[in-house]
TrEMBL record:
Pfam families linked: MatE
Name by which UniProt lists this protein: Protein DETOXIFICATION
Chief place where the protein resides: membrane
Compartments (UniProt record): Membrane
Lineage: Eukaryota, Viridiplantae, Streptophyta, Embryophyta, Tracheophyta
Single Gene Ontology MF annotation: antiporter activity
GO biological process: xenobiotic detoxification by transmembrane export across the plasma membrane
Species of provenance: Cephalotus follicularis (Albany pitcher plant)
Length: 501
């Protein structure tokens, strides 16, 4: 491998022009994805606003249902689909078009089977919540919302893999425009279904389903029109199913890594209900979680895009360009974290006023806003680091770190401070801070100290050429053995990488 191919050698630092070029490449992808995430956030806010117009019982039931469906459904589907990131990005980098399209089909099939038990849970939401002691009137509304949202599970079996499929090919602007068009019709849909037709809670749920369906139709139309939809079905069902096992080995830990963090925020809401003044605590927690969700849109976009960039470069056999993409993304994440600390401190007294007029809730939110800002200082590099790990096909590390950080560090600290030492509401968020710091330190250590980028390029070649692709593009046995031998000689990995490539 020449320096020209790799961008720069292992003994030289990247030049300012190379860093600037990578910054442009990364943010050209990340900005449209950030805009798309913000539009999805706006769609959720619109649904809550229409639920609020129906009444307090409908709002409470809808909020309960949204929380339940997020935990049991959407987080799982997003997490599983993220397992597609290393395969598609590395396949695109190595120009393995068969693997790219087959992996999309395999993930759609995985999600299709995953929504079956999720649907059963959603149908029984009301019974589950009543069993847990929730108010029957509120759970009735929540159950109705969940049942009418079930078709959205089928929509997401296409929507989530398509997003990863396109992002791995650096196609982000069309996704933004498709989302914009779909969300533009979300308000009129809600108005017609809820206010004109008087469908109430079912109307709000149906509007969300139709909006997501519109996104899928627009994205499929773009993929078809652009010629990217080259489904290789010659291998038959056996060819599609043949690579499901290896793909699941990436999808399951990716899912756990995302869900473990996602679920922890719901646990905080439950814990807030056990504090001295639960009404104030839960209301303040809702505002703070909405705030963190808003701030999360940028690092989430950056994580997805750096995963694609790292995977593309590793798949193309350019380990040092992959490393450069990772370092630039981490630097950008650190800057975003500093910005979040700055604005949360400056606006801490005013921010809660956008959500409530209750002065006690405002005071409670203001007292915790700086803590949330510092949490984001750790969360931005941590989220970006998880994206880098997915790009290198190591999501299991992210899952282990999230499990240890949030449940063996964050939870004991939160419970100990809030209830044991009687710190109260802020103790819960110090627990989050401890979890985020532990998570960030662990993931940065893995990326900055423990990652052998040349070895990752060798593994990427195996992933995209052999292990995941036996059904569609058989590899010569001697070449496969050559890859295995090279992986076992990491002391001189660069020499072997040059020989293989």
């Amino acid at each position: 491998m020449t320096d020209k191919d790799s961008g720069f050698s292992s003994h030289k630092l990247p030049s300012p022009s190379q860093v600037l070029e990578e910054l442009k490449e990364l943010w050209a992808m990340a900005l449209p994805i950030t805009a798309m995430n913000c539009l999805v956030y706006v769609r959720a806010v619109v649904s809550v606003l229409f639920l609020g117009r129906l009444g307090s019982r409908e709002l409470a039931g809808g909020a309960l249902s949204i929380g339940f469906t997020n935990i049991t459904g959407y987080s799982v589907l997003v997490g599983l689909a993220s397992g597609l990131e290393p395969v598609c990005s590395q396949a695109y980098g190595s120009k393995n078009w068969d693997l790219l399209s087959l992996s999309l089909q395999r993930m759609i099939m995985i999600l299709f089977f995953a929504i079956i038990p999720i649907s059963v849970l959603w149908v029984n939401l009301e019974n589950i919540m009543v069993f847990l002691g929730q108010d029957k009137n509120i759970t009735a509304m929540a159950g109705t919302y969940a049942i009418y949202s079930i078709p959205d599970l089928l929509t997401n079996t296409l929507l989530q893999p398509l997003r990863v499929f396109l992002r791995s090919q650096r196609v982000t602007k069309p996704m933004m425009w498709c989302t914009l068009v779909a969300v533009m019709f979300h308000i009129p849909l809600n108005y017609v279904l809820v206010m004109v037709m008087g469908l109430g809670v079912p109307g709000v749920a149906m509007a969300s389903v139709v909006t997501n369906l519109n996104m899928v139709v627009l994205m499929v139309g773009f993929v078809w029109a652009s010629g990217r939809w080259e489904m290789r079905l010659a291998a038959g069902i056996g060819g599609v199913c043949g690579g499901v096992g290896p793909l699941l080995k990436l999808a399951v830990p990716s899912c756990l890594g995302i869900c473990l963090e996602w679920w922890w925020y719901e646990i905080v809401t439950v814990l807030a209900g056990y504090l001295a003044n639960p009404t104030l605590a839960v209301a303040a927690t809702g505002i703070l979680i909405q705030t963190t969700s808003m701030m999360y849109t940028v690092p989430m976009a950056l994580a997805g895009c750096v995963s694609a960039r790292v995977g593309n470069e590793l798949g193309a056999g350019k380990p040092y360009k992959a490393k450069l993409a990772a370092m630039v993304a981490l630097g950008s994440a650190l800057v975003m974290g500093i910005l979040n600390v700055t604005w949360t401190v400056i606006l801490r007294e005013r921010w809660a006023g956008l959500f409530t007029k209750d002065e006690l809730v405002k005071v409670l939110v203001a007292s915790v806003m700086p803590i949330i800002g510092v949490c984001e200082l750790a969360n931005c590099p941590q989220t970006t680091g998880c994206g880098i790990l997915r790009g290198t096909a190591r999501p299991v590390i992210g899952a282990r770190v999230n499990l240890g950080s949030f449940y063996f560090v964050g939870t004991p600290v939160a419970v100990g401070l809030a209830f044991g030492l009687k710190v109260g509401f802020s103790g819960l968020w110090y627990g989050l801070l401890s979890a985020q710091v532990a998570c960030a330190v662990s993931i940065l250590y893995v990326i900055l100290v423990r990652t052998d980028w040349e070895a990752e390029a060798l593994k990427a070649m195996k992933l995209s050429s052999c292990e995941m692709n036996a059904a569609c593009n058989p590899v010569n046995e001697k070449e496969y053995e050559k890859v295995e031998e090279s992986e076992g000689l990491l002391v001189n990995a660069k020499v072997h990488l040059d020989n293989v490539l």
